[in-house]
């Protein structure tokens, strides 16, 4: 049996389901697949250069990257895919032949999840919260999906402006801007993308006042642990159509697995496995929505 070794670099990642998805799919394809959590909250040495070098020395073939490293990691890589370069964010590193190749599978993961979960969503005026590494991916994805207007908010206004400027260059036919007044933007919005860590077990809470949500809004979340975030609970309460972060988690893993191994995984099988892993959380979400 051929062996393959991968890992995830990030902060507060002990609840991640990415390892289980990769390992299960690897076994189906006859791989002795191991996947290690490289949690910055638990490592003595949190220097990204040292973490990547250590992974290489131990024979890792790939690394996933999550909050807060998706942008900082770029300076340690040898090459970037066109999407990673456009987004200035990397969530997948292929380690091959002594080289480090950076990719971004977040954007496709979100786009595919959105296509399946909210197929007829109004994309005339989208508000996005978060302009970090994940936010770059979701912004790119929603604009590739046909959004005509995108307003980006971030606690760091400079970061929001930078992302808006970048996306505006890649999508000149869309109106992309950094937002100043969230309440006003939500009053004019057709939908909301949440692309910050808020709502994760480690960062509980709502990313915006609940009263900003209207029944006409759709709400798309990137957080998947828990699936039923405070934002989605509030959105259900307000009558919004919603999309949890599970689909993005699965589909980014689908692409990452293929990049790591060169083997095309079965996306539907990985979705089913994810559903099994999150069954208790899904039942809780259904009860909250009913």
UniProtKB/TrEMBL annotation:
Residues 247-270 form the SDH C-terminal domain. It holds the Pfam family Shikimate_dh_N. This is Shikimate dehydrogenase. It comes from the Bacteria. Pathway: Metabolic intermediate biosynthesis; chorismate biosynthesis; chorismate from D-erythrose 4-phosphate and phosphoenolpyruvate: step 4/7. Transmembrane segments: none annotated. Keywords: Amino-acid biosynthesis, Aromatic amino acid biosynthesis, Oxidoreductase. Residues 8-93 form the Shikimate dehydrogenase substrate binding N-terminal domain. InterPro entries: Aminoacid_DH-like_N_sf (IPR046346), NAD(P)-bd_dom_sf (IPR036291), SDH_C (IPR041121), Shikimate_DH-bd_N (IPR013708), Shikimate_DH_fam (IPR022893). It comes from Chelativorans composti. NCBIfam families: PRK12549.1 (NF009201). PANTHER family: BIFUNCTIONAL 3-DEHYDROQUINATE DEHYDRATASE_SHIKIMATE DEHYDROGENASE, CHLOROPLASTIC, SHIKIMATE DEHYDROGENASE. The lineage of its organism: Bacteria, Pseudomonadati, Pseudomonadota, Alphaproteobacteria, Hyphomicrobiales. Gene3D superfamilies: Leucine Dehydrogenase, chain A, domain 1, NAD(P)-binding Rossmann-like Domain. Coiled coil: none annotated.
């Amino acid at each position: 049996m051929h062996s393959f070794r991968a890992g995830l670099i990030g902060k507060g990642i002990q609840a991640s389901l990415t390892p289980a998805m990769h390992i299960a799919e690897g076994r189906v394809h006859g791989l002795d697949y191991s996947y290690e959590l490289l949690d910055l909250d638990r490592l003595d040495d949190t220097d990204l250069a040292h973490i990547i070098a250590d992974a290489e020395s131990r024979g890792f073939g790939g690394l996933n990257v999550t909050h807060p490293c998706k942008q900082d990691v770029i300076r340690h890589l040898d090459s970037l895919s066109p999407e990673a370069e456009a987004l200035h964010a990397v969530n997948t590193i292929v380690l091959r032949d002594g080289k480090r190749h950076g990719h971004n599978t977040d954007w496709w993961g979100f786009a595919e999840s959105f296509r399946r979960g909210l197929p007829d969503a109004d994309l005339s005026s989208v508000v996005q919260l978060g302009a970090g590494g994940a936010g770059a991916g979701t912004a790119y994805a929603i604009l590739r999906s046909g959004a005509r207007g995108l307003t980006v908010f971030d606690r760091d206004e400079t970061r929001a402006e930078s992302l808006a400027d970048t996306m505006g260059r890649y999508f000149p036919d869309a109106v992309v801007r950094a937002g100043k007044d969230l309440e006003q933007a939500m009053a004019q919005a057709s939908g909301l993308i949440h692309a910050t860590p808020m709502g994760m077990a480690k960062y509980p809470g709502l990313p915006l006042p609940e009263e900003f949500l209207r029944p006409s809004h759709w709400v798309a979340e990137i957080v998947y642990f828990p699936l039923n975030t405070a934002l989605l609970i509030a959105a259900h309460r307000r009558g919004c159509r919603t999309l949890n972060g599970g689909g993005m988690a699965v589909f980014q893993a689908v692409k990452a697995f293929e990049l790591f191994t060169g083997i095309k995984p079965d996306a539907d099988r990985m979705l089913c496995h994810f559903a099994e892993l999150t069954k208790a959380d899904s039942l809780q979400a259904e009860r909250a929505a009913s």
